[in-house]
Design goal:
- The chain is an all-alpha fold and 145 residues long.
- It contains 3 helices and no strands.
- α2 packs antiparallel against α3.
- The two termini are 38 Å apart.
């Protein structure tokens, strides 16, 4: 681990080297501000992803409750009895509905996950574009000095 003094000496050495070579001096205030914006964008993207995950979990809970209600309904019908043909038909109908619901639910959850990921990525992408624009402007301005 390096101590603070050697880090400061190294930074001073590079700053002096840049000054001696007539390199443009970095705007430290602008660098700190950019870093702050990057952290804010990362925080926003994380919150967006977390919100999406929460929505997905809530929807999955609802789906499980719906499935349990349907299973309970089917169990009540089976308890009531009836002729074997109608019971087989009811079981086949239940299996078909369960399969269709599973496909629909899987598709819905995948769509929610994709949307959440896309929204998080858009936050980071916008920040990256802003960073690149600031770099372009800094490069243009440093050439004018």
């Amino acid at each position: 681990m390096t101590d603070k003094k050697s880090t400061e000496d190294l930074a001073s050495m590079f700053m002096k080297f840049g000054k001696d070579m007539n390199l443009p001096q970095p705007d430290l205030e602008a660098l700190v501000e950019r870093h702050r914006k990057n952290l804010q964008a990362l925080e926003e993207a994380t919150k967006t992803a977390g919100s999406g995950a929460t929505s997905i979990l809530e929807r999955q809970r609802e789906m499980v409750q719906e499935a349990l209600a349907e299973i309970s309904e089917m169990a009540e019908k089976m308890r009531a009895g009836g002729d074997p043909k109608s019971m087989m038909s009811a079981q086949a109908d239940f299996a078909r509905r369960s399969f269709e619901m599973a496909l629909k639910n899987t598709s819905e959850i995948a769509g929610m996950a994709q949307k959440s990921g896309s929204e998080s990525f858009k936050v980071l992408q916008a920040n990256m574009q802003e960073t690149l624009q600031e770099l372009r402007e800094a490069m243009l301005n440093s050439g004018k000095k």
